[in-house]
Specification:
The protein has 2 domains: 120 residues, Nucleotidyltransferase, domain 5, CATH 3.30.420.40; 190 residues, Hexokinase, domain 1, CATH 3.40.367. The protein is built from 11 helices and 13 strands. The strands form 3 sheets. The protein has a 6-stranded mixed β-sheet, with helices on both faces. A 5-stranded mixed β-sheet has the order 3-2-1-4-7, sandwiched between helices. A two-stranded antiparallel ribbon has the order 5-6. A hairpin with a 3-residue loop joins strand 1 and strand 2. Helix 6 crosses helix 8 and helix 7 packs across helix 8. The protein is globular, with a radius of gyration of 20 Å.
Length: 322
């Protein structure tokens, strides 16, 4: 395919790159707050690469939120995209918007051997879906399908906003404290995101009658890794809840193709995660626990899987258009 620009845009950062010959080139990362619009951010990227408007005819952007609507409004930042106005301003022929975790899922098809760690050994069953789940600014959930023609399809969804599951009496007490904080307790808002981890910490402090002295997810994580007991319990519960949510998706989708743990948070405490109760809670499904025997789970450490997935999506889209 010809040169394309690909982007992976979250709540905090926008990552852009050029896609050609099946790979990424010239990756740049900027804060979404640095530009008033996504068009301005892309124009600045092109200028930094010495490319004039119109030299890149295809743009594929992985975006947090449901991308079917027009204009599209990002879930976790103030940008919006009117497709017609976007194409006119940046002089592009093709604009493809895909859900950020659809892109993340497609990125799993290009992982190199040094870009993932095995959490649970097993063998992926051919032709079965795989779950891709990752916590960061939000909680993303994607489903990866292999198609008979050798191409890939990623199902979009908003699985981060499912209800947070409860697996014990103590978790029920913490859930009640979260409900007092938040109202509806989603997996993302109640635990499995940056803000969710902080909410989980505050709820745990309330249940234990302890002062909530930490003020950010980074502080909670740092304290846990330094051995502070309460923060350590919170991060352990985060890992267990991630296992429960991932396991629910496996059962719902019949995802014997495996589970990919992606996103920006877990790789920052990979050793803690590997020793946590994640695997136990993943398969803690009563009469269906044996369903998880031999199910492979991988922790993704690749730097830009969402960008790669946007490139795969652009390439497949243009091939189908030919």
């Amino acid at each position: 395919m010809s040169l394309a620009l690909v982007g992976d845009i979250g709540g905090t950062n926008a990552r852009f790159a050029l896609w050609r010959d099946g790979g990424l080139h010239s990756v740049r990362v900027s804060a979404t707050a640095d530009h008033a619009t996504v068009e301005q951010a892309i124009a600045a990227y092109l200028a930094a690469e010495g490319l004039a408007l119109g030299e890149v005819e295809t743009i594929c952007l992985a975006c947090a939120g449901p991308v079917e609507v027009d204009p599209f409004r990002f879930t976790n930042n103030a940008w919006r995209i009117d497709r017609k106005a976007f194409r006119a301003e940046l002089k592009v022929r093709e604009l493809l918007l895909i859900n950020d975790f659809s892109a993340m899922a497609l990125g799993m098809t290009c992982l190199q051997d040094d870009e993932y760690v095995t959490v649970c050994p097993g063998v992926a069953q051919p032709g079965r879906p795989a779950v891709v789940i990752g916590a960061g600014t939000g909680l993303g959930v994607g489903t990866l399908l292999s198609l008979p023609d050798g191409s890939w399809h990623a199902l979009p969804g908003e699985g981060g906003h499912v209800d947070l599951p409860v697996g014990s009496n103590r978790e029920a007490l913490i859930w009640q404290a979260l409900h007092r904080q938040l109202g509806h307790v989603s997996a993302e808002a109640g635990a499995l995101s940056g803000n969710g981890l902080l909410a989980l910490y505050r709820a745990t402090c309330a249940v234990d009658g302890q002062p909530a002295s930490l003020q950010s997810a980074a502080q909670v994580t740092r304290a846990a890794l330094e051995g502070e007991p309460l923060a350590g319990n919170v991060l352990e519960l985060f890992c267990c809840l991630l296992g429960r949510v991932a396991g629910n998706n496996v059962l719902t989708l019949g995802a014997r193709g495996g589970v990919f743990i992606a996103g920006g948070m877990v790789p920052r405490f990979a050793d803690f995660f590997m020793a946590s109760g994640f695997s136990r809670c993943l398969r803690d499904k009563g009469c269906m626990s044996d369903y998880f025997d031999g199910l492979p789970v991988w922790l993704v450490t690749a730097p830009y899987p969402g960008l790669v997935g946007a490139g795969v999506a652009a390439e497949q889209h243009l091939q189908r258009s030919d």
